[in-house]
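TL;DR need structure tokens for one chain.
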Amino acid sequence: METRYFGIDLGGQGHEVCVCSGDGTQVGRFEMPRGLAGWQRLRSEAAQQVPAGGRAVYLVEAAQSFWQEVVHPLSAAGEEVYLLNPIKCSDLRKFYRRHTKTDAIDAHATAQVARADHGLKPAYVGSVAEESLRRLCRLSWKLSEEMRDHKRRLSTLVEMVLPGIGKVWKNRYCRSAQLFYGRYLDPARARRLGRKRLGGILRRRALGKFSEETEARLWSVIENAPVLAYSYEDLQLEVSCELDGLADLERRQQKLRDRINELYSEVDPHHLLESVPGVGPFFAAAITAAIGRVDRWQNANQLVAYSGLVPRKKASSGKEKLGQPLTKKGQPQLRCWLYVAAETARHYDPEMQAFFRRLRRRGMHHKAAICALAAKLLRRIYAVLKASQEYQIAGSVGEKREKPVRESVHEVADTLLKDYADAASPLAM
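>> reply
TL;DR here they are.
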């Protein structure tokens, strides 16, 4: 069976396509416009270039979002299509033409990747719900990062005007705190208003949850405010802009989270990952969308390698150098979600706590231990999805109980460390 490799170099104005035979010889080249016209041109050229009974292999570099208009219709048509890492394409292109770069050279190098790398996996395109869930989870995470930036800037401003105000409220961005920041940041204005009247205003805004102790701490901070050579009206305007931006992001975030919950219920009606300690509703939806169909991974090792939570391997002359950094292959956001989930899981899962403490006793850095914990957590997530059953915390098999408190987790972890060299859940295999 003769094979034709179609290397597609994507571009904003149009795509360059190079057609190579099985031995790497270029047999054709053409330009492919974007949109539906490009898809029709590709199908027409493929019908001419591929011999009767031959095999067409499409290789597309994952450049920005252009690849979707090529990969999605090819996958829907049942064609053999591979989505390539841009780094691999760039390295191979430099091997062929180090000092020259053109669209034709890039397309030719892309067509050669399949001959050089025999470990390629077909491009994965999930269902419509999975693709939407993946995109919305990424956007939601970006909005969360923007909200954290707004809060950091807001905290810097209010601490400059009123040192120590961050210790007044347990939640420094609650309703009463935001009202105070937006109206009474000027210490002179707050003093003119008076403690009793100011406390009453904030208490009504907090629906009665503004206590006398909180009021006393706030008034102490107001009386201790320094004299700044700034216009307090302009400082108030800065704070108001940050609060408005934060409120807008929160509204957008809520709309996203509502839709994410709907899509997650469609992709996984049983919400299996929410049973895993440390994996809340958002992380459950995001990780499920990032993994896709679990059956496309032969085992948990492949999934962990895909996440990039495995150390690099460096060996020479029969000697292997240990302690290498992570490969960081795959989606950065997936690693970030797993890292945060693992940080939380060690407080609620005794086995995770025991594993973490064992690594720390060996002298491993906190962040390195959390990365190892994230890889372990991903293996258990794989097991949960593969078995289609809820996660069972150590000691809870056959009984349903609430999330254990941290003290109980430490007690069980101590027992596991004492009785077992390496405690593992039945679902970890």
